[in-house]
Amino acid sequence: MSLAVSTEPVRIVRHPDRVVELMLDDPGRGNALDLRTAEALRDTAREVAADPGGAVLLRAAGRSFCVGGDLRAFTNRGAGTGAYVHAVASAAHAAVQALYELPVPVVTAVRGAAAGGGVGLALVGDIVLVARSARFRLAYTAIGLTPDCGASWFLPRLVGPRRAADLILTNRVLTGDDAERWGLVSRSVEDEELDDTAHRTAAGLAAGAGDALRAAKGLLRAGTGEELGRHLAEEARLIAALADGGEARDRMASFLAARGRPKSGDGRAEAGESESVS
Question: What pTM does this model have?
Answer without folding.
Answer: 0.91
